[in-house]
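Batch queue: ligand-bound targets. Current item pairs a single chain with zinc ion. No template structures supplied; prediction is de novo from sequence plus SMILES. Inputs echoed for audit trail.
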Amino acid sequence: MTNERGERDVGISEDAWRRRLTEEQFRVTRKAGTERPFTGAYVDTETPGVYRCVCCDAELFRSETKFHSGSGWPSFTSPANRAAVTTREDESHGMRRTEVLCARCGAHLGHVFPDGPAPTGLRYCLNSVALALDPDDPEPGDGPEPDAP
Ligand SMILES: [Zn+2]
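Prediction returned. Tokens below.
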């Protein structure tokens, strides 16, 4: 299951990522950090839509596969498509885990564990800060979106 391709170079230097991202986004996605549980923006989100990579905008996960894991991080049973993410073994912090990365830009997203619900039995445990939710178009009749800042 392990893909050893590692991080893909999309021609953006570490300094450029640092300028482009917030401090927390940079720490998580480029330095394999982890946000504190129950603090992320998408832990309980049920809004229909696409979760994109906060770094490169690639479509990574869809709301249809999101579930409430109780872990404190947004959790999914599968990526939006097979090519969206790559995985590799991660033995940091004295644990053996499988790291999940954006296939396009190599952003660290989180880890995948074999204790998820059907149909895949997988739990993609992700950092909210690595994701940007792109909501589906609202149903007709919902009226225009307010101009929120
Ligand atoms: Zn990406």
